[in-house]
Amino acid sequence: MVKKLSRKFYTQPTLKVAKELLGKYLVRKLGSRKLVGKIVETEAYIGPEDRASHSFGGKVTERCKTEYLEGGHIYIYLCYGMHWQLNITTSLAGKPECVLIRALGHPLATGPGKLCNYLKLNKSFDGEDLTKSKRVWIENRGKRTKPSTGAKLGAGLVPHRNKVSGAGKQQVVATKRIGIDYAGSWAKKPWRFYLKNNPFVSKI
DNA sequence: GTACAGATTGAG
DNA sequence: TCAATCTGTACT
Question: What is the largest CA-CA distance in chain A?
Answer without folding.
Answer: 47
